[in-house]
Each structure stands twice: as C-alpha cells, then as structure tokens.
Amino acid sequence: MIPGVTSKITFNSGALSGYEFEIHAYHTEREEFDVVGYEDERRIQQLDEHFKIKVGDSYVIHDVLIPESYVKRKKILSKKAQEYLSRCS
After folding, report:
1. Mean pLDDT of 42-47
2. How far, in Å, CA of 16 to CA of 61, rounded?
3. Which DSSP symbol is given to 67?
4. pTM for the complete prediction?
5. In b/e form, how buried is each residue of 52-71, taking b as 16+ CB within 10 angstroms?
6. What is the DSSP secondary structure assignment for residue 35, as one 8-state letter?
7. How far apart are CA 82 and CA 25, in angstroms?
8. I need a labelling partner for 25 at 20 to 30 A (CA). Which of 5, 35, 42, 83 fits?
9. In the predicted model, is pLDDT for residue 44 greater than 70?
10. 73: left (phi over 0), alpha (psi -120 to 50) or beta
C-alpha cells in the first residue's frame, strides 16, 4: 500500500459488480485484505449477508504499489506479445 493514499478495490463481477470499496489493510502472510463497507444512496448496507465477496469474483485494485516482480513480468510479456504480433503481420 502507498502511505497516505487510500487504496481501493472495484468489483467487475459477482454481487458487488460495479461497486468500489476502500481497502483498510493488507495481510501479506494470509494474502488477504480488509475492505471497508458502506451504506449506499438507497440506504442498503454493502458487504452484509446479501452483498458478499465470493470466490471467483473478479476485481481491480487501485492506488497500490506494484511489486517489481510484476513489473518485470509485464515487460517480458509485452515484449513477447510484440514479437508474436510482428511475426503475424
């Protein structure tokens, strides 16, 4: 996480699709994060018994530091993709 910046998670699928939440903390040892729930404009409490995060839900995490190993992998994959596209055209 970035000190002084509120990290966020946006869900792309599942019951929470389209919702964005603040991330309170990340637990490296368990690879889990704590998400802050809220009440929406319809006064529906998000992250309750009806709106749960489930295995298989897709999401995007915003405003976090990306580990250098991910950056290196992305560069390698981008290079290989460019090589492939060059051969195909």
Report:
1. 65
2. 14
3. P
4. 0.66
5. eeeeeeebeeeeeeeeeeee
6. E
7. 37
8. 42
9. no
10. alpha
